[in-house]
Design goal:
The protein is an all-alpha fold. The protein has one domain (4-216). It has helices at residues 4-27, 38-70, 79-90, 105-123, 130-141, 158-178, 187-216. The radius of gyration is 20 Å and the shape is elongated. The model has no long low-confidence stretch (mean pLDDT 84).
């Protein structure tokens, strides 16, 4: 059974499938360029990126809830997560900040902390490029460089996956902020990005599941 985040992602993905089917219905399947349908391709790029970002936030929140639910002591939290929290509390101007973690306070602190991280990212207008996704999972649940899990087959290396994600997220930015991209957006771009993000989401979910299982002894799904 997939995670709740993956179920939500797959449900959202139906919108992309509808756009691709609409493109086929309007333009057919014969070879050759289609005119007047680029808006569908652009829409697909924007939505895929949005759903990818939502998936990452959802799976991070789901994993954090899992950690809080199944860990009885803050001492058993993943080392990288403890480092993150310790660093934040050290920089807290309030002298009694450390007492936020006393008793069951650590679990409440972690839950509220994820909301703070989301708001901070929104204020900075971060985009779901690989470095920001790495930062999200490192800060939220203590996974360092989750993008290192993005590799499959023989040709898709971590470096290539990172570059490909950033290319498409940049394309989304051009469409969203300028109304058009530097180059025309083809159906092949939307299909390629959609297939890529589905694989990346799977690899990300797998890495998160391994991480929380190692900490709690219980898998996320």
């Amino acid at each position: 059974m997939p995670s709740k985040a993956r179920k939500a992602f797959d449900e959202n993905a139906k919108d992309i499938e509808k756009l691709l089917r609409l493109h086929e219905q309007e333009g057919g399947t014969a070879k050759g360029r289609r005119f007047g349908l680029e808006v569908l391709n652009k829409s697909a790029i924007v939505l895929i990126t949005s759903y990818w970002e939502a998936y990452c936030e959802d799976i991070a929140a789901e994993a954090l809830e899992h950690l809080v639910k199944h860990l009885k002591d803050a001492a058993n939290l993943p080392v990288e997560l403890k480092k993150q929290v310790a660093k934040e509390l050290k920089n807290d101007p309030h002298d009694l900040a450390v007492w936020k973690l006393s008793g069951s306070g650590w679990s409440k602190h972690l839950k509220s902390r994820l909301n703070d991280l989301r708001q901070e990212r929104s204020r900075r207008l971060n985009t779901p490029k690989y470095s920001n996704i790495d930062g999200l999972f490192h800060s939220a649940i203590g996974v360092a460089d989750i993008s290192c899990s993005w590799t499959w087959a023989r040709k898709m290396t971590v470096a290539r996956a990172r570059k490909k994600l950033d290319k498409y997220v940049t394309l989304r930015g051009e469409i969203a902020h300028r109304g058009k991209a530097a180059k025309s957006v083809k159906k092949a771009d939307a299909v390629d990005y959609f297939d890529f993000i589905q694989k990346v989401a799977g690899k990300t979910g797998g890495a998160v599941n391994t991480h929380v299982k190692r900490a709690t002894g219980k898998a996320l799904w």
